[in-house]
């Protein structure tokens, strides 16, 4: 990674407002941008990049102020993810997932549990990973005295080797009851594999994980009191919350693609020899495409910010979240997820039309933007997001909570 890491974050006053934290994220993004293409090609585990997030204070953005966190809310966190993803989609995803898993204790756990987790996470600058791929139903949880034992395998475990703690998910043996627990990432029996070899999001450490009798105290089972789960509607807000993480790092990648392409067009692109213009920046077709893509990106960003504000109102009063409010929010999230997917894919593709043939050189790395968005947008089919919106428009039907809605 670049050695241009700022050295004055620890001597400057910490950011105090949302705007200042977004500016700090922009500083982090500028550091990541210096060698983003080279790091993408190398595919090295991003230990230095995660340390950069810790040194900058972004890791504890959502943490309680009294324990060293920034005390910011989700509207700021989403903007921070977007800024970081401009330079590096992988690191933007890692940070966004970290925020969700850090917040998961509050979503699912008891007050005593989440207050403890958030305090420890802020004080120790924990970076969270998660072995919670919902399509894998092969992690079984058994009881052994005062402990729970997790055994099985997950296909994906984002953040694995760069995490300090990992959120585990499994099903109690012989039941359909899921259980979540946070364990140290170096726990005995927890083995992360080097099998993440996809075309995009190469630095997310999203490979498989084996759980060979990973033990954790019963008291760490999120939301359980006397071994019985205490359900709340707020528990189900985990899906729309992380779907907005997806939205914002897609839009961040798209913004980074446009900015990088525009710099290339201004400094390296040649005008077409039959166009009659001396500069590529005077080509009317080039101007039109940049204008079109920018307008689409701005519209998607505005919708994303509006939906984030709607979600924050639910986070502000968790006990008041109703099934109807939760369902209405999910419809809005589905709509912006569909828009962000289409816009980011279009931008990642069309930037080559305004940069030219030489921009396809591996050294330029412009392909990483499309590869990153294309890879992650397959997480769940966007057609099903549009279906949620369409069902609501035609029948007033609100989506039921699932692992993907």
From TrEMBL:
UniProt entry keywords in alphabetical sequence: Oxidoreductase
All residue ranges annotated as the Acyl-CoA dehydrogenase/oxidase N-terminal domain in the record: 29-117
Stretches that traverse the bilayer: none
Pfam families cross-referenced by the UniProt entry: Acyl-CoA_dh_2, Acyl-CoA_dh_N
Domain of life: Bacteria
Acyl-CoA dehydrogenase C-terminal domain segment(s): 245-379
Entry protein name: Acyl-CoA dehydrogenase family protein
Native source species: Streptomyces kunmingensis
